[in-house]
Amino acid sequence: MIGCVKTSGRLAAFAVAGLLAVLPACSGSDGRGGAGTGARSGPDAGAGARSEASGTVFRGGRPAAAGAGDPYFPELGNGGYDVTHYDLTLAYDPGSGRLEGTAGITAKATADLSAFNLDLHGMEVLGATVDGSKARVRQEGQELTLQPRDHLKKGTAFRSVVRYAGTPESIIHDHGWREGWLRTANGAVAFGEPTGSMSWFPGNHHPSDKASYDITVTVPKGLQAISNGLLSSRRTSGDRTTFHWHQAEPMASHVATVAIGSYDITTSRTRSGVPVVSAMDTTAGVDEDGAVLGRFPEIMEWSEGRFGPYPFSAAGVIVDQAADVPYALETQTRPTIPAGIFHTTNVVHELAHQWFGNSVTPRTWRDMWLNEGFATYAEWLWTEDHGGASAQDHFDRNHAKAADDDEWDFPPAQPPSASDISGQPVYVRGAMVIHKIRQAVGDEGFRALVRGWTLSHRHGHASTDDFTAYVEARAGRDLDSIWDSWLYGDGKPA
Question: Which of 65, 114, 134, 290 could disulfide-link 47, Cβ–Cβ 3.0 to 4.6 Å?
Answer without folding.
Answer: 65
